[in-house]
Design a protein that fits this description.
96 residues; mainly alpha; 0% strand
């Protein structure tokens, strides 16, 4: 199947490139388009039936997450405990 898909993609080289997920969603919702988008950014559309997953492919880009907080906060120790807990959850989900 991979070779067939690559052949179809190479035969149909006309495509639109967009710079944001919002633009990709707008293009998809307004025409017969397809895009590679992480599912959580369009989950509402999937659940409502407006969009469906055509090819269950993994997204090639990792999503970076940041914790932003005031280090002078009196709750600094609690924030650190929370950050460590979130990191452990991510590691567990990744199977590490």
């Amino acid at each position: 199947m991979k070779n067939n898909l690559q052949s179809v993609i190479s035969e149909n080289t006309i495509y639109t490139s967009v710079s944001s997920t919002d633009m990709a969603l707008t293009a998809i919702l307004n025409s017969n388009s397809i895009a590679l988008i992480v599912d959580y950014l369009c989950q509402n559309y999937i659940e409502s039936g407006a969009l469906s997953i055509a090819l269950p492919l993994p997204h090639p880009n990792k999503v970076e997450s940041y914790f932003v907080y005031d280090k002078r906060s009196p709750k600094h120790e609690r924030v650190q405990v929370f950050i460590e807990w979130v990191k452990s959850q991510i590691r567990n989900e990744a199977g590490q």
